[in-house]
Amino acid sequence: MAGSTNFPGLEKVKHIVLVLSGKGGVGKSSVSVQLAVALKELGNKVGILDLDLCGPSIPRMLGVEKSKIHQASSGWVPVYITPDRNFSVMSIGFLLPDKNSSVVWRGPKKSAMIKQFLTDVYWGDLDYLIIDTPPGTSDEHLSVVENLQALKLDGAILVTTPQAVSLVDVRKELNFCHEVKLPVLGLVENMSGYVCTNCKECTNIFSSGGGKKLAEEFKLNFFGSVPIDPSLVEQLDISATGCDEFERYSKFIQQYKSSALYEI
Ligand code: ADP
C-alpha cells in the first residue's frame, strides 16, 4: 500500500507502475492507456498520470484535452473519464493554454513540476496508478523514482518495438532500473507486425520476436505483443468525450484479448 505524509494524495493508492520506453514514438502512451483500460475492465479503480512534460498526449488519446484542472481543499482533482469515477487522468497537458502550446522546461523546473504533480494531485482510492513517463531515462525519471521510492513503487513496464535500435534502448532502460533499484515488471512489444484492415491477417513487416528474446535473455516477464493496427490510430484520432473513448479502447482491447495477442 502506497502511503506517506509527504504525498497525501497518493495515500490511498495501492499500486504505482511506471511505463518506460527507450525512445519516443514506440507507443508508450498508447500502451499506458490500453493497460489502464484493461485494468479498469478487470474491476479496478485506475488513474493515469501523464508526466511526459514535453509531449503530453494522454488527454488527446482519452478525448479530454479541453478539460481543466480543478483545485479542491485536498489538492488538484484529476479528470474523470467514466461516470463511475473509477478511471481518472492527470496531465501537464491540462495546464497548457492550448493544444499547440509547447513548453521549454529547464531541468530544475521539470523536477519541481514533477514533484508538484506527485504531491498535489488528490487521487483518492485507487487500485492502480499508471505513470506515463517521457522517453529515455532522464532527470524526470530520476525525480519520480527518488520521490516515490519511499512509497510502494511497484516497478516499471518497458515498451519496445521489434526494431533492433529500440531494443538497444531497452537495454539502457534495464540498466537504469537496475541502478535505481526499480523492479522491472515486464516488457510489451508494440508495433509487432501489421494487421490488414481487410483480412485481419497479421504480417511481420519488421523482424518480430525481438522483445520476447530480450525478455528471455534478461529473465523478464513478457506481457505480449500489440500489432500495428490502423484501427488503434483511428481510436486515437477520433475526438469524442472521454466516456465514448473509454468504450472504444475497451472494444479494441477485447479484440486482442480474444485473439491472445494482448495478454497483460
Ligand atoms: P510514445 O508515447 O512512445 O511517444 P505513442 O503512444 O504516442 O508513442 O504512439 C506514437 C504514435 O504511434 C501514435 O500516433 C499512435 O497512434 C501510434 N501507435 C502506437 N501504437 C500503435 C499500434 N499498435 N498500432 C498503430 N499505431 C500505433
From TrEMBL:
GO annotation (BP), single: iron-sulfur cluster assembly
Binding of [4Fe-4S] cluster, residues: 196, 199
Protein function: Component of the cytosolic iron-sulfur (Fe/S) protein assembly (CIA) machinery. Required for maturation of extramitochondrial Fe-S proteins. The NUBP1-NUBP2 heterotetramer forms a Fe-S scaffold complex, mediating the de novo assembly of an Fe-S cluster and its transfer to target apoproteins. Negatively regulates cilium formation and structure.
Binding site for ATP: 22-29
InterPro entries: Mrp-like_CS, Mrp/NBP35_ATP-bd, NUBP2/Cfd1_eukaryotes, P-loop_NTPase, YlxH/NBP35
Taxonomic source organism: Smittium simulii
Family according to the record: Belongs to the Mrp/NBP35 ATP-binding proteins family. NUBP2/CFD1 subfamily.
Main localization category: cytoplasm
MF terms (GO), sorted A to Z: 4 iron, 4 sulfur cluster binding; ATP binding; ATP-dependent FeS chaperone activity; metal ion binding
Subcellular location: Cytoplasm, Cytoskeleton, Cilium axoneme; Cytoplasm, Cytoskeleton, Microtubule organizing center, Centrosome, Centriole
Protein name, entry field: Uncharacterized protein
HAMAP family: Mrp_NBP35 (MF_02040), NUBP2 (MF_03039)
Subunit structure: Heterotetramer of 2 NUBP1 and 2 NUBP2 chains. Interacts with KIFC1. Interacts with NUBP1.
Any one of the GO CC terms: axoneme
Keywords from the named record: 4Fe-4S, ATP-binding, Cytoplasm, Iron, Iron-sulfur, Metal-binding, Nucleotide-binding
Matches recorded under Pfam families: ParA (PF10609)
Entry keyword Transmembrane: no
